[in-house]
Amino acid sequence: MKANRLFIACVASLSLAACGGGTELTAVLSGAAEKPTAVTTNASGNADVTVDGTSIKATGSFKDLSGNATAAHIHGPADANSTAGVFCNLNVPAAPSGTINEGTGAGSCGAMTLTDAQIKDFEDGKMYVNIHTGANPNGEIRGQLNKK
Asked: CB neighbours (10 Å) of residue 82?
């Protein structure tokens, strides 16, 4: 009887893990992570991205940019030493500090429907977050998304 309860508890816990909140990824954003050339900046940030089914949810924050954020994106696929085109747009305020979210509307990360190959790119650490400013149009801070 004790063995049966243990078996049922194990199956229940595996089922919850399999059905749970998707793949959770995190990135620490810094000027040093910018490629191909690091950026000297006091700015920093963090981003948490969840790939849940075929959708993307994003949260995070940034501070001390050299000027207002002009854009923020998830780029990929690329490893931490490479660059790639924009994958989708993140929502950030036009300010030197603020919050990050997935946004809505055409081109936003919140409007994406991911393919299996794109989900694999996220899971394999081939996507990064980048925040751009007027002084650093190619990106002032960047962070590679990796599983938590």
From this structure: 13
Report, as an integer, the average pLDDT of 38-46. Answer: 98
pLDDT in tens, 51-68: 999 999 999 999 999 999
Chain position carrying tokens 């243990």: 6
* Amino acid letter for position 34: E
CB atoms < 10 A from the CB of 32, how many?
Answer: 10
Domains of the chain in sequence order: 22-147 (2.60.40.200)
Contact criterion met (CB below 8 Å) for 140 and 38: no
> From CA 74, how far away is CA 86, in angstroms rounded?
6
CB 140 within 8 A of CB 29: no
Note the Cα 111 to chain centre separation in Å. Answer: 15
Residue type, 66: S
Cα–Cα distances (Å) from 43 to 5, 78, 131, in that order, read 52, 23, 10
